[in-house]
Amino acid sequence: MKLLLSGRALTAAAVAVATLVTGGSTAGAATAPTQPAAAAAPDISAAAVKAHLAQLQSIATANGGNRAHGRPGYRASLDYVKAELDAAGFTTRVQQFTASGRTGYNLIADWPGGDANQVVMAGSHLDSVTSGPGINDNGSGSSAVLETALAVARSGYQPTKHLRFAWWGAEELGLVGSRSYVNSLGSAERAKISGYLNFDMIGSPNPGYFVYDDDPTIEKTFKDYFAGLGISTEIETEGDGRSDHAPFKNAGVPVGGLFSGADYRKTSAQAAKWGGTAGRPFDPCYHSSCDTTANIDDTALDRNSDAVAYAVWELSQ
Fold first, then answer.
1. Which pairing describes strands 161-168 and 19-21: parallel, antiparallel, or unpaired?
2. Residues labelled catalytic
3. Each residue of 3-58: pLDDT tens digit?
4. Which tens digit of pLDDT belongs to each residue from 101-139?
5. Helices 298-316 and 141-155, axial angle in degrees (round to 10)
């Protein structure tokens, strides 16, 4: 985490203090009330995120090696995340849907307070493919979103906007869970979502640093964060439209997010910029049985998890 201290300082919002002088005389000078400082996002513990990943790995191992839609490992994963959120004071609900003849589940968690007409959402898909435990895809995003939500609770954060977190089912079958959620909302409810942030694969072992180029404000928020770390980002193209932001975007909701790469191969220019191995996939274990806890780059997971929290804090104030 020490790698991120300078970035945090560089990207922290400045607070302006105004002095009002009346009548052009120092005798009549009055000082305007100091505005409260913008709340700074906490440093998300990579160890805590990895502890969630270890739990998801254990769940997969105990349930046939996967956490796929309609399988016991998925429901056990959802129950784990829900229990953590319930204990932290979130209001949670489970939304059911059907896909491929099996019952699926989304988990929605609301943090009490904030303007219900301005909702900032952060989400990730919780399901894996049937061929593996899905620790990078997408335990990584799910665990970072979970730890960010728990950080909200620990800090007692009370933003201006309302915070909502989500874990989607059956993404691997075609974004079924997130689409079901968006379709369940009326137009008025959709209009209340001021931004949806998506995190799908953020700990790839040969990582890139990719930012969605959808909503300009959200995109700039992420780019500013990484610029503060001295990390150059690229526009995300590999998964464009293939993850859970797509149903929100199609419904007119502003979206953004992060991605560290799947089966596309890292170029020489990208390896020079980010490190890692040129000519190899960003994630050689994509959709495979080797997508285990050994398939995570700790530095990428650390940086991206902090970026999740940074965006949640910045966009909800």
1. unpaired
2. 171
3. 333 333 333 333 332 332 333 333 333 444 444 567 899 999 999 999 999 999 99
4. 999 999 999 999 999 999 999 999 999 999 999 999 999
5. 50
The whole-number pLDDT of residue 68 equals: 99
Judge residue 18's burial from the number of C-beta atoms within 10 Å of its C-beta, 0-12 exposed, 13-18 middle, 19 or more buried.
exposed
**One-letter-per-residue 3-state SS of the chain:** CHHHHHHHHHHCCCCCCCEEECCCCHHHEEECCCCCCCCCCCCCCHHHHHHHHHHHHHHHHHCCCCCECCCHHHHHHHHHHHHHHHHHCCEEEEEEEEECCEEEEEEEEEECCCEEEEEEEEEEECCECCCCCCHHHHHHHHHHHHHHHHHHHHHCCCCCEEEEEEEECCHHHCCHHHHHHHHHCCHHHHHCEEEEEEECCCCCCCCCCEECCCCHHHHHHHHHHHHHCCCCCEECCCCCCCCCHHHHHHCCCCEEEEECCCCCECCHHHHHHHCCCCCCECCCCCCCCCCCHHHCCHHHHHHHHHHHHHHHHHHHC
Strands 102-111 and 161-168: antiparallel
Instruction: Please state, in angstroms and as integers, the Cα–Cα distance from residue 139 to each residue in 185, 222, 236, 256, 260, following that order.
Output: 26, 21, 19, 19, 13
